[in-house]
Amino acid sequence: MSALLDHLRESAAAVQARIAGASPEVALVLGSGLAGAVRLLEDPESLPLADVPHVRAPSVSGHPGRFAFGRIGRLRVGVLQGRLHTYEGWTAAETAYPVRLLVTLGARVIVLTNASGGVREGLRAADWMLVTDHLNLSGKNPLEGPNPRVGPRFPDLSQAYDPGLRTLLLRAAERAGVPLHEGVYAMMAGPSYETPAEIRMLRRLGADAVGMSTVPEVIAAVHQGARVACLSCVTNAAAGLGGALSHAEVEATARSAEEGGVRILRAFLEMLGGPAEPG
């Protein structure tokens, strides 16, 4: 048995010893400035990531570093409030571990959110974009090294962003009255923002938005057989397309756009859970 499988079982047992209802069907990963979406949970119970064995804790502002569990309508939901990043010094496998744990606890659908810089012309601050595919330009992959035996050695990523979930999110955004763009997300290693020359390169490669996260989590979740979708909040125009860049601006814009993202997620989860049972 692999060390990863052992660790995941130990982490899951520790979470369930603290929170009896930690058996999510769906998991949400809340990125920079978006942690407030946890208010969707009914009767939530939470615990810090630092209290779970084998889980690292984030150090970046806007990432509280908590698991929360509860219900949204008919669905049991787990939430990761704040993610890890490789630029903090963690490996790609370590950054993906909390998402792997949510899958181990039972989540078969993972919806990730993040903040990104708009690369494509026409994307503006506070726009929401449904990720259709990604470019992994970070040089990081959570599957490097021995096969961890929780999935295939060479997983297929041709439909990493599940087409059915994407269709449902587009319908949810329409129901919520929130415009939702579609596009390709590029991951760069960070933590420095991209140069104007790098943004010109990304445009030529077909990227629509750029950020410093998400891709290792997507790869790991797909590797374990989960269905994945991702919503990206465009918080600024990328380098060379606007003014100076700052993390404070990213957080402030994400907070201003948060309500639209919450409405999309609420409608999506209502549709995913199906019609309510008659009272």
What is the succession of H and E elements?
HEEEEHEEHEHEHEH
Low-confidence stretches: none
Number of strand elements: 9
* Radius of gyration from CA coordinates: 18 Å
- Give the CATH architecture: 3-Layer(aba) Sandwich
The outline comes out as: globular
Q: Report the major sheet.
A: 5 strands, mixed, barrel
Q: Please report the first level of CATH classification, the CATH class.
A: Alpha Beta
Termini separation: 47 Å
CATH topology: Rossmann fold
> What percent of the residues sit in helical stretches (DSSP H or I)?
25-40%
Structural class: alpha/beta
Number of folding domains?
A: 1
Average pLDDT works out at: 90
The CATH homologous superfamily is named Nucleoside phosphorylase domain
Number of helices: 6
